[in-house]
Amino acid sequence: MLTRSQLKQKLIETKKNQYKQFGITVAGGNGSGQELNQLSVPCGIFIDNNKSVYIADYYNHRIVKWELNSNTGQTIAGENGKGNQKNQLSYPINTIFDKENNSFIISDNGNRRVVRYFDQNQTDQQTIISNIDCWGLAIDKNGFIYASDIENHEVRRYKQGDEKGELVAGGNGHGNHLNQLYGPANIFIDDDYSLYISDYFNHRVMKWKKGAKEGIIVAATNGRGNSLKQLDCPQGVIVHHLGHIYVADYCNHRVMRWCDGDEEGEVVVGGNGKGNQSNQLDLPSGLSFDDEENLYVADASNYRIQKYEKN
Fold first, then answer.
1. Mapped to the 3 state alphabet, what secondary structure does the chain carry?
2. Where are the NHL repeats (predicted)?
């Protein structure tokens, strides 16, 4: 007879989502450029309830929105070219939506700041964190903002109006010990306030429980590589409600999935070599789900967003 934990694991295994292996391009796909039907190295993404895709369009210094079935996007932040003025961005690498305040939070990486843009009002911008080499952003159900600092190898949590933040992960210099990070990139916060961090230069994903002094390695334990136990410069990380961890395995051109306790992951999409075919990726960066659990991938060097439908 199976134990309770074995039953739980069996349930998780049977509920693993499977995805069609040929992606559908839902944004970009027209080469690198600054026209509204183009992207130039898309990074962080999120999907709203209408299946509109919001994209940090890195080399175009803008945030763009592509509505469902649209052939072009619309600029919602940073349409005035690269710069540090209130209506400008410089190499935005990530964006999330704050539902409570109806605003976009943007990692304005080139300007070393995190800014808030209020929906459809580009002149109403606030700098909420200054002097930070921020890559990843997340927001919890209480509205606290989490920002990864790739320069200081730490993640901090910010209350509204607090620019210093509270250290919640790392902060012990760069290294590969469990209380250290080395280039924390994308981050995800779950309903238990556990923080998942793609530890870029350590080629692993860390989980830091609320209040923990050190993290747990939850994806990739064998150093840099392309086996099923390894990652190569992980970027986007999202966690399914069943606890499945999805990772954009950037330099391996694939998206991986780890379940709790797994020694090795599995390839979810990609993994067919670097390329621009519909079953291939080229430096995947951001990840997101829509409300039907379809998977979206920012396919950075193919200048497109790919949607993989759930089977």
1. CCCHHHHHHHHHHHCCCCECCCCEEEEECCCECCCCCCECCEEEEEECCCCCEEEEEHHHCEEEEECCCCCCCEEEECCCCECCCCCCECCEEEEEEECCCCEEEEEEHHHCEEEEEECCEEEEEEEEEECCCEEEEEECCCCCEEEEECCCCEEEEECCCCCCCEEEEECCCECCCCCCECCEEEEEECCCCCEEEEEHHHCEEEEECCCCCCCEEEECCCCECCCCCCECCEEEEEECCCCCEEEEEHHHCEEEEECCCCCCCEEEEECCCECCCCCCECCEEEEEECCCCCEEEEEHHHCEEEEECEC
2. 224-255, 280-311
